[in-house]
Amino acid sequence: MAKAKTSITTENRSGSAADAAAKEKRTEMPLSDLHPFEGHPFKVLDDELMEQTVESIKQIGVVSPLIVRPDPEGGFEILSGHRRLHAAQLAGLETVPVIVKEMDDDAAIIFMVDSNLQRENILPSERAFSYKMKLEAMKHQGQRKDLTSEQFAPKLSTEIIGEAVGMSKDTVKRYIRLTNLIPEILDMVDEKKIAFNPAVELSYLKPSEQKEFLEAMDYAQASPSLSQAQRLKKLSQEGGCTLDAMCEVMNEIKKDELDHVTIKNEVLRKYFPKSYTPKQMQDTIIRLLEKWQRSKQRDMER
Q: Of the four listed, 1, 170, 270, 294, which is most buried by Cβ atoms within 10 Å?
């Protein structure tokens, strides 16, 4: 991720503490003066939630102000509120409420990450790159005294990051591993086409191997299980991760597939009223299968 531009710090400005506090008061600012935080990892999607936000803004405006910092090259850089800015643009607003904060690059990155991680639904790719950005910023700030060996650090940066979001330092590291995935595979993780744990194992494959893995996945028409991904990682470490080898691994029938039959919800919905619950659909399918089985038995007895 690209590093944010250097901000104008409070040490470089004259004025009293009261002046500095005044700069953090809520004020209206033209949308044209605002631009996204450079390299921020959070996606702004035109989804159903965005539509709801736009409608809300049309009715009552932007309630929660955006947090921004001055950009020495002009305008203001958004630390928190990228989705609100986009919704305000779609709603046709000319200004939005903001609070201006003076922060250096590292403090701005940490604030930006912590603020955006408060959202309810965070994609794996967003967590991956935001944790990586925060980790690098914390290292620049000197919160870790030993940058060569984690085991001697009094408190690891990954441990501090994990405590803030309620997860272990190892889970934080595993999320950061996802930043080694090529964009096509990382998108599949966000779309839940590839599960988190297999994706972590795939991150150890070289970029060229990951591209060929996409071919193997398409060939097998299946997503990798954890054991398959671990075997692909081992093949890569041993120098034998060829397209043919990956196709062979991916074409194997997974153990859980031997015990389960899965029918996608969108396939079933074509045959049932919208009011039917999953339980009603299941009961109806069982009744039809029992009827079909009795019919087959009668045919055999004739």
A: 1
* 3-state SS assignment for residue 137: helix
CA dihedral 86, 88, 91, 94 (to 10 degrees): -120
Contact between 49 and 123 (Cβ < 8 Å)? no
C-alpha span between 54 and 77 (Å, rounded): 22
- Sorted by where each begins, the domain ranges of the chain are 23-101, 104-142+154-178, 180-255, 263-293
Euclidean distance between the first and final Cα of the chain, in Å?
72
Report the CATH architecture of 23-101: Alpha-Beta Complex (3.90)
> Dihedral through CA 102, CA 103, CA 105, CA 107, nearest 10?
-160
pLDDT tens digits, 221-232:
999 999 999 999
Residues 131, 230: Cα–Cα separation, whole Å = 24
**Residues 6 or more apart in contact with residue 33 via CB below 8 angstroms:** 75, 76
Model pTM score: 0.69
Taking only the tens place, the pLDDT of each residue in 170-220 is 999 999 999 999 999 999 999 999 999 999 999 999 999 999 999 999 999
**Token pair for residue 154?**
């009094």
